[in-house]
Q: What sequence folds into this?
């Protein structure tokens, strides 16, 4: 899909069903296989190339004016998580031979983000260019995004009296100026590749299928949660890397489609149905025998 | 709250008659000195400042919420449970206004009042829980139409308004504003239709909130059809709550009912019959939901398997059978115990979905802080006190008593 689903629905609503037919569906990627969010900006993380220097963490902290990341000794002592003042973490896992395997975690920037669909005030929104953006001035702090996110990415400033949700921004303002995200611009080992999603999926497939003895045959993020803009390849299992392996392959916003189809039905059918029941139960003057001073309320 | 809208009258006779229950100010204040009121006052004295403290110091200082547990007691109990227990308003409203079940007329107004206060307390609890509640207005302008919470918010806002309008009938009658309450009374049918419509949508939508989190909620409680379960269990909550509430209020406020005979037992048996059928159906629907979710093998296994059995057998199937037996053999105590079990069962279900079975696979579990508990308790007490204050004055349990010199005047 070239357009965000939200945008798509807006256009569909404005121009009627004809537009639905006319709009393009999934367009083929470079290798001819359809890819969701093909033109969205994306990052491919090749964990086999990551040396664990944590330059991305420092660059992220600088670009987003966050506190300096901890020292290596501290950082790898425990399994860290992102937080309100830390948008990305490099985690350490172990290969079967005991050597380290590093992986950078941050918001996955889903093609169809659960968080943005869950946000009732659209403080979280999906940009057409790829990033899942957040506007704290709209946020009412319901924290439903935190319930919805399958990767448990959004973090809340509980300590603040004027709290906002915090997460990786994908450096959307830098991207808008044509610059790459801060983390990818400093990566010295080539572990992070910045590009469009369609091209990066083709690249990832090329690497995995070209080196079947090296890579685990799975591109994490290609299908997870309906596709994410951060893609991962590795040579150990994703479970070992600490990834959420139970995540559905389908888009999360689609899970609630059935439930969200209920209100239009109820709003159209209930009033006439209930009025019909009222007429039925009040036939033959059955309603005339009302006591309690209530007679004559409705004929 | 209602007193602020009372018309000022010279001499204070209206105030004395309608607000102070015919006593002088001194007598009235003395009459407030009861053990029950002292306990309530203590809870309020702790709870109300805590709300202020929460906004000054933030959620972190007052709650045990965490990055993995974004919703706690204020959502799980005040919102999820409060709204379910307030379902009596639309259930009984529909029975009387739409299905013309005249025998329930006597409990319509108390049920609507319970509903209105329940929603009001839930909204206050929600405001305490929201990080920046003033941004709630964005619900009405930002078109977050893909969100289940958008539906919940709109419906709760609309339905609270409808409940207020329904409650305004006895309120305006009490104030003597005939010009307003007569037309409102004529609108009751329309308001009831709206109340059923909004309730259907948001009682179910409160369950739909969790559909987007399939791996965070235990498979015995998670279901793609959870909205159906939430709606049906809200009807159960409404019926059971009305039995409990009418039992209590007909004992406590018996002097209100002087000269106004209501066969409360007959009403209770009628409700019990309905409750038995709905609960029985709900039990098997839930079972079907578990099968549908491929979780049948989890029943009875481990803590959650046993906990689910306790909820479903002890607080759904058992009260269902007790309702049926009690209604069949005219055993009022059995019905009333069943109603209490039914209410506890719904509280348990809502807490299970939003707190106990949520994050079941997380190593660190949430337990509410004492301040969260105190605020929730305070909201319950405010609801009970408001209910008492209102039924002692307004024509809720019984029609307005004719009072010389203070009735019928429009301001």
A:
């Amino acid at each position: 899909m070239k357009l965000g689903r939200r945008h798509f629905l807006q256009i569909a609503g404005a121009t009627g069903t004809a537009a639905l037919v006319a709009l393009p569906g999934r367009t083929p990627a470079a290798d001819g296989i359809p890819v969701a969010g093909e033109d969205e900006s994306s990052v491919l993380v090749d964990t086999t190339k990551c040396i664990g220097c944590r330059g991305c963490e420092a660059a992220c902290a600088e670009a987003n004016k966050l506190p300096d990341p901890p020292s290596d000794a501290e950082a790898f002592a425990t399994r860290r998580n992102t937080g309100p003042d830390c948008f990305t973490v490099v985690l350490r896992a172990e290969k079967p031979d005991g050597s380290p395997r590093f992986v950078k975690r941050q918001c996955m920037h889903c093609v169809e983000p659960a968080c943005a669909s869950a946000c009732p005030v659209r403080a979280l929104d999906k940009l057409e260019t790829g990033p899942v953006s957040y506007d704290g001035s709209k946020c009412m702090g319901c924290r439903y995004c935190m319930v919805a996110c399958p990767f448990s990415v959004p973090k809340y400033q509980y300590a603040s009296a004027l709290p906002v949700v915090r997460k990786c921004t994908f450096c959307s303002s830098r991207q808008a100026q044509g610059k790459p995200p801060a983390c990818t611009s400093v990566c010295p080992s080539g572990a992070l590749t910045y590009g469009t999603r369609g091209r990066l999926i083709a690249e990832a497939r090329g690497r995995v299928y070209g080196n079947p003895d090296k890579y685990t045959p799975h591109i994490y993020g290609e299908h997870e949660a309906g596709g994410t803009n951060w893609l991962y390849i590795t040579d150990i299992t994703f479970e070992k890397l600490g990834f959420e392996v139970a995540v559905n392959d389908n888009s999360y916003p689609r899970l609630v489609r059935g439930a969200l189809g209920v209100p239009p039905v109820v709003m159209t059918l209930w009033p006439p149905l209930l009025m019909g029941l009222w007429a039925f139960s009040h036939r033959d003057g059955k309603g005339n025998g009302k006591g309690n001073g209530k007679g004559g309320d409705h004929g | 709250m209602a007193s602020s809208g009372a018309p000022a009258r010279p001499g204070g006779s209206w105030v004395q008659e309608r607000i102070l229950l015919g006593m002088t100010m001194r007598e009235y204040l003395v009459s407030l000195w009861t053990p029950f009121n002292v306990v309530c006052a203590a809870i309020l004295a702790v709870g109300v400042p805590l709300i202020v403290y929460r906004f000054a110091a933030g959620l972190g200082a007052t709650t045990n919420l965490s990055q993995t547990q974004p919703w706690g007691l204020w959502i799980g109990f005040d919102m999820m449970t409060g709204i379910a227990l307030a379902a009596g308003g639309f259930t009984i409203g529909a029975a009387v206004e739409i299905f013309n079940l005249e025998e329930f007329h006597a409990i319509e107004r108390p049920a609507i009042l319970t509903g209105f206060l329940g929603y009001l307390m839930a909204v206050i609890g929600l405001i305490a829980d929201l990080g920046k509640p003033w941004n709630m207005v964005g619900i009405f302008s930002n078109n977050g139409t893909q969100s289940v919470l958008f539906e919940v918010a709109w419906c709760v806002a609309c339905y609270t308004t409808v409940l207020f309008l329904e409650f305004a009938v006895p309120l305006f009658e009490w104030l003597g504003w005939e010009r307003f309450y007569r037309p409102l009374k004529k609108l009751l049918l329309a308001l009831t239709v709206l109340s059923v419509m909004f309730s259907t949508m948001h009682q179910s939508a409160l369950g739909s909130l969790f559909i987007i989190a399939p791996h965070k909620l235990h498979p015995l409680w998670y279901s793609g059809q959870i909205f159906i379960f939430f709606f049906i269990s809200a009807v159960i909550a409404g019926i059971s709550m009305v039995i409990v509430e009418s039992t209590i209020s007909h004992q406590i406020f018996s002097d209100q009912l002087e000269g106004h005979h209501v066969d409360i037992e007959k009403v209770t048996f009628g409700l019990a019959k309905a409750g038995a059928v709905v609960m029985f159906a709900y039990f098997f629907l839930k079972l079907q939901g578990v099968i549908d979710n491929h979780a049948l093998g989890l029943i009875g296994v481990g803590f959650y398997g046993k906990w689910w059995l306790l909820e479903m057998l002890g607080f759904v199937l058992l009260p269902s059978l007790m309702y049926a037996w009690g209604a069949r053999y005219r055993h009022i105590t059995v019905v009333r115990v069943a109603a209490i079990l039914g209410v506890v069962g719904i509280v348990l279900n809502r807490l299970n979905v939003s707190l106990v079975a949520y994050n079941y696979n997380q190593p660190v579990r949430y337990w509410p802080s004492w301040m969260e508990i105190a605020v929730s308790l305070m909201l319950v007490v405010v609801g009970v006190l408001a209910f008492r204050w209102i039924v002692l004055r307004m024509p809720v349990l019984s029609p307005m008593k004719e009072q010389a010199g203070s009735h019928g005047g429009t301001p």
